Amino acid sequence: MRHLKDRLAGYGLLLPAITVFLVFFYLPAAYLIYVSFFHWGVLSSAMKFVGLANFRVLWHQPLFWHSIVTSAYYTVVMIPATVFLALGIALVLKEAVSARRGGVWRAAVFLPHVTPVVATSIIWVWIFNPQFGLANFVLRTVHLPALGWLESIHWALPAVMIDSLWHSLGLYVIIFLAGMANLPRELLEVARLDGAKRHRIFYRIIWPLLSPTTFFVVVLATVNSWQAFSQIYTMTGGPHGGAGGPAFATTTDALLVYQTAFTYYHFSLAAAMSLVLFGIILLLTLIQKWISNKVVFYR
């Protein structure tokens, strides 16, 4: 009887969290799948079942495939840049974390991640202004040609990537620092006593032991990159040709979903896009999990 009461008390404690997930995640996700098989716009209350028609529309829509390619390019660049920069900064800060002012350095690195995305993105818009922005000022100072940045179809997406890296890098640095804090000191000390060089200690001991942390960072960066929206919407809107501009150079899949739903009011087509985006992220995560079973070392 007491065991039953304990179980009921446990379920009672879990009930608020389960309710939140059910109301704000599982039910909307189920409704999104349902809507993707109907034709439904905001101007019409009637929903007409169309089966896979929305997915056939996407299959024949060039802009949708362009957004997939743009999202893939964004992700392919962001993942290695995030992993190697975050790991490098974490290695540099490792001694500072152990020192007296380690908390100050951790806070300084993590601070950009907790700043409002919209506010900081507006600052980056000023930095990348082709006429009076700080970025081109630095390029002219070192006698390099100024770039069009957000007004150029070639440099708009790299500019957004720089903003995204600056904003998210602190989170991944802290994750790597947490992983380094759990490294067995005995192995590192033995390697140093045996005369191992720093780079050999890193490649032979530190990085293999950090493989679970690296895998977590890669999965997190993949999901965040495919869902990138706020920086792109804020930085490429207004005078730069509308969000996703110029000339759709920064139109990712997540941004196209938003525009389809809230600019063109075609919610069923946007639901189908969201379902495809979910499938891509799920497939990539499963592939990463399969690879991790072969290369990740869990001690």
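Above is the first protein from milestone M3; the second protein from the same milestone is given next.
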Amino acid sequence: FIGSEGTLGIITTATLKLHPLPVARCTALLALSSIENAIAMLTLARHGFGPSLTGFELMAGNCLEDVAHCFPQQRLPFEGASAALPWYALLELSDTESEAHARERFESVLAEAIESGCVKDAVIAGSMAQSKALWHLRESIPLAEKASGKSIKHDVSIPMSRMALFVRDTNRALQEAFPGIRHVIFGHLGDGNLHYNVARGGDWTEADLLARQDAVFTLVHDRVHAVDGSISAEHGVGQLKRDALVRYKGAVELALMRSLKQALDPQGIMNPGKVLAALAH
């Protein structure tokens, strides 16, 4: 019912399972030369931390540059070549045993990652304040994006094995179709969720960007579909993407959705106009 965005039912009761707070957290910002290396680092972290891995956020370098430009009080904690790399990842471990245990596990995995070459540089938070500062960099990306003007946003899900291919090929296709367009890419790599946004570049006005919105949506969503991804990840379909469903879902899938809606909500009173409007005949 949650996945259907309220179109198939309503929640009347919720039961929560509580877990003990972790006794220690370790946070690091990693400098990376490619998405492939980010995926390799994620694999190492999953193997080394297991369920204690509680954060792995991917960020394009230009996103952090935008944050530093819009909010001068924030800065990238790297210098030299490490400050000019194309990708960064925010890594977090939450440990239930002890601070010493957490630090030992964390440093062991990072040492392996640096030795293997998948991480070029790393800054480990030495305090809770430093950890919050690193997370603040990530959380400020949407704020910097908004401060820079309107953008065209895509909340998509991509198979991990095809993430690098999708970003590389879609970036190239967008530049060929709309020279100068800016890429604003960040997301929750551990979930395969990517905020693949584009913003105006060069001397474009916001009107120039929005005039191309439908064409950009189609190009990006076609690329998502081509790598067996989903055009709707954590933000759902809602109204903005509902008319695109008929382009990316098969006849059997659409018929099943219509049948479920008719069976569970024959009067069409549950969140009307969302997700399924494009399926009505």
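Note on the second protein: Residues 99-116 form the longest helix (18 residues).
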